[in-house]
Design a protein that fits this description.
5-stranded antiparallel beta sheet; 159 residues; OB fold (Dihydrolipoamide Acetyltransferase, E2P)
Amino acid sequence: MAEFNFNVNDVPAEENNNFGPLPAGRYRLVVLEADIQLTRKARDANDPSLGQYVKAKLQVADGQYQNRLVWSNFNVVNANPKAAEIGKSQFANLVSSCGLESIKDTSQLCGKVVSGEVKVTKDTGYGEGNEVKRFYPAGPAAAPAAGPEPTGGDAPLAF
């Protein structure tokens, strides 16, 4: 054991240290990471044809929740053709919102800024979380907002 004199009252309180879900709304998001992962079923069987998804890590670019993280998974290979179709459609939404028509590597998404419609989800195992329901082109940077932009249906967000 080492002697260490420490008092929490000597340390300034952290601002914005709430790690709960972001409030529902539109946020400017930067794609930090995007990678292909195997689903559990594909990993267990050591067979990529059974399931793959793109895992994207995004960071809020500005406003009250700047630097907070959200993740999106896009199911692109699945034994269920409908599941793969939905996942590919959602991934196409992200890619096109990044201003790209096609990609050869998921790293091409990294650093791109998009606008994302974030919703709060409930999961019995994990509690509340976030899901990016839809992506939009970000447009020019806006002045930092106090919170999420108000949602306005499916119309693209004008910055």
